[in-house]
Design brief:
Radius of gyration: 42 Å
Order of helices and strands: HHEEEHEE
CATH topology of the largest domain: Alpha-Beta Plaits
CATH architecture of the largest domain: 2-Layer Sandwich
Helix content: 40-55%
CATH superfamily of the largest domain: Ribosomal protein S6/Translation elongation factor EF1B
Number of strands: 5
Structural class: alpha+beta
Length: about 190
């Protein structure tokens, strides 16, 4: 059989086609599979980056609110301290009485008692405030707005008309016996002492 130039050309083309197919199957096709695996890893990495960016944004938001949270926590710690801190409470009550024009004639703290659910303690405080009707009303209105967390449980008001046995009381004085509860969250499990 004689190889003609045309047959030689066809054999060359077929040989090149076989070489191209073999090279494609041996070298290129595995690289496409590697690229496909890398694309899948890249997609997973993109998802992880998105997740981490979301977490970072959440943490930055929490960090930005941390000062507000700390300020609120300090406010709550003042409203519901870890101990009765009765001297500070008495000073606060006396300052309120002075600013409203009433006189505190008695302040009597009681024994702390645990709440029903055991989450906090209540310290009963009875006080007697004497002053004019307007001053007494202002005192009672501002009493529950103090920095310390207090709750008024009862108020008993007695009106004195004319002169009284006590010369320091103004005419038309009102005497208010106010029963309060001060709250605290003790650090220890034992009962706090007043």
């Amino acid at each position: 059989m004689k190889i003609t130039p045309r047959l030689q050309f066809i054999l060359t083309v077929v040989g090149l086609a076989i070489v191209v197919v073999v090279v494609g199957l041996v070298i290129v096709w595995p690289q496409y599979r590697v690229l496909g695996a890398m694309d899948a890893k890249l997609a997973l990495a993109d998802q992880e980056v998105t997740l981490q960016r979301t977490r970072l944004a959440q943490r930055q938001e929490i960090k930005n609110r941390a000062s507000q949270i700390d300020a609120r926590w300090l406010t709550l710690a003042n409203e519901v301290p870890t101990g009765p801190d009765l001297p500070a409470l008495i000073i606060e009550l006396q300052d309120l009485a002075f600013s409203t024009g009433v006189q505190l004639t008695a302040i009597t703290p009681g024994a702390p008692a645990v709440s029903i659910d055991g989450a906090y303690w209540k310290v009963p405080v009875a006080l007697t405030a004497v002053g004019t009707w307007a001053d007494s009303v202002e005192f009672l209105q501002r009493l529950n707005k103090l920095e310390r967390g207090l709750r008024t449980t009862s108020v008993q008001t007695t009106l004195y008309t004319g002169t009284t046995a006590d010369p320091t009381l103004p005419n038309y004085a009102v005497s208010n016996v106010v029963n309060l509860e001060a709250y605290l969250i003790p650090a220890a499990a034992s009962a706090p002492t007043p």
